[in-house]
Amino acid sequence: MAEFELDCLGEACPVPLMKTEKKMAGLKSGDTLIVHIDHSCAMKNVPEWARKQGHNVEVEEVGDGEWDVIIEKC
Amino acid sequence: MSETSVRARTPRKPKRNQLPIGLLVLALTIAVGVLLAVYKSGELATAWVFGMCFGFILQKSRFCFTASMRDPCITGSTSVTKAVLMAFAITTIGFTAIKYAAFASGQEIPGQSYVMPVSLATAAGGILFGIGMVIAGGCASGTLMRVGEGFGMQMLSLLFFVIGSLWGAKDMGWWNLNVIAGAPRVFLPDVFGWFGAVVIQLLIIACLYVAADLWERKKMGITE
Amino acid sequence: MKQFFDKISKNRYYAMVFKNPFTYVTGAVLLSLFQIALFAYSGNPWGVSGAFANWGAWIYRLFGGNVDKWYYFSSSGAQQTLDAGVLNNSGSLMNFGIAAGALLAALLASQFKFKKIKSVKQVVAAVLGGLLMGYGARLAGGCNIGALFSSIASLSLSGWVFALFLLVGAFIGSKLLAKFFL
Fold first, then answer.
1. Rounded CA gap, C80 and C89, in Å?
2. A30: domain range?
3. Residue in B closest to A50 by C-alpha
């Protein structure tokens, strides 16, 4: 049930997605990853990827043009 | 067990409602449109308006041609690819209707300058552009969209896109002489007839759509 | 006053159109409709990168350069376009519009944020990527819009050939991205 953070603020497409994919591979089932993003493409393609992988995803808007993508590895 | 969640710890930044600024910008863009129409021409004002519509739609849908080609290579996702194929299909029908209507009534077919020569320059240009758009994090329309969204990186990318364009323009003399001259412009209806060309193109798009779907299923391990 | 704006932002229909993102499919359909409308209205489909070459020429002129003897700018049409200036160039205005429309969309959704360049890697990527796109677009006669989207819609074989090689380039770019720019 560990919680991890990934700071992807200021990253260009598709770096948030690629970094998320890499990081998720190292997590155990039940772990949570919180990805901080400010890229409008990433707030769509990161959750989409995570859902397709079968994880639980929540997206929270935490500021103007900033989101936290909370992924729970299944 | 009860480790404080990151979410509870992260200070929420005060969100400012940007609607007032948005409305101000909207008013300014309308003003620009009106000024263009009055002092320049309706045609230029319309170009501005169309541009705004494209930009608005691109941003809201996060539509990116780069992603349509890049995502299948990195995660196997083809949702954007399929959307792009849909756009190809819809515009094929719309454009052909317009072109055929002109042809059938004996008028000059519009937009034929976009039927470009097929040569090694097309291939070389495609590869260079493909590499560039993935590295730069956006294609031509995507870069403009991201400039509007406030991405410093794409502003820099745009500057060098312009410089690269000038460089390319400079070399076009050579390319035209040695590679492009004599290359055929192939308008599919000339080969397959109007109906045949549309049917074949739509069939190809449909096949690519299915292929994209299968690719995603395979790469992302989706079994349902 | 603030409450008034906040109230609008929370309205259901405002959220649907201005706050929430559109799906890719919605974007595809809308873009297609506007593409077709543009073609119907102006007789020419959408193009983005052609204007960039003109911008380059105008900037070059500012620095004392001259493109009049270049093959690319030698046609009378091209000369007229250059002489008329950027504010009389529909392609340029359309490009400015794209940026403005995207800005507007972000602001109306309260999602605008200025994102500074973060690292040297990003600078290299932007410079290299931009140059490649600019040069490649001239070679192919257009970019992802003019030489791909519009050409395919125009039933031109060149669009498909360009698409194939774009994919090749995108593949190479993806490998480079993973290796050097991640």
1. 10
2. 3-69
3. B220
